[in-house]
Design a protein that fits this description.
By secondary structure, the chain is mostly helical. The protein has one domain (4-139). The protein has 8 helices and no strands. It has helices at 4-14, 19-31, 36-42, 46-49, 57-70, 83-97, 106-109, 119-139. Helix 2 packs antiparallel against helix 3 (36-42) and helix 5 (57-70) packs parallel to helix 8 (119-139). The protein is globular and about 45 Å long. The protein starts with a helix and ends in a 12-residue tail after the last helix.
């Protein structure tokens, strides 16, 4: 049985959002925020950077999430000190999570079927990545429900 996050992921996928966009939408929803520009920007990460040859959108979207919570966004703001370590932890986790597919590229995960997301593989990775990002944030003293302050 799916939990609320799983149901929300399915709903967003059904509306045509890709993996990277779904991750951002989940985080924005948790923070009680909306940002259509950020969602549009995340579409550049869809389908392994467009042609399935690049890194999976789940990975790049999850990295984008860590940046959303820990990156520099204003002139007088700095990235959190642990951002590079959080990104490294995410990379190591994703590399291990995708070993069974032979790599971290969209093409590897989809077994060469570019443009045809696999509900089980992609949905499972989105769900696991979202949970992993939340765990990384909490373990580094960042609240997933808060995000960075808005000016």
């Amino acid at each position: 049985m799916l939990d609320d996050t799983g149901l929300k992921m399915m709903e967003l996928g059904g509306k045509g959002y890709c993996c990277s966009q779904i991750l951002i939408l989940l985080a924005l929803d948790e923070m009680g925020r909306e940002n259509p520009d950020l969602i549009r920007a995340a579409s550049g990460l869809c389908n392994g950077l467009g042609d399935c040859s690049g890194l999976c959108g789940v990975y790049t979207g999850a990295a984008m999430l860590l940046g959303l919570y820990g990156g520099k966004g204003e002139d007088m703001e700095e990235s959190v000190d642990v951002l590079p370590l959080m990104l490294e932890e995410l990379r190591d986790w994703f590399a291990a999570a995708t070993t069974q597919y032979g790599g971290m590229a969209c093409r590897d995960i989809l077994d060469g079927r570019c443009g045809q997301p696999d509900a089980a593989r992609c949905g499972g990775l989105v769900s696991a990545a979202y949970a992993q990002v939340r765990e990384i944030l909490v373990n580094n003293g960042l609240d997933p429900s808060e995000g960075r302050s808005l000016s």
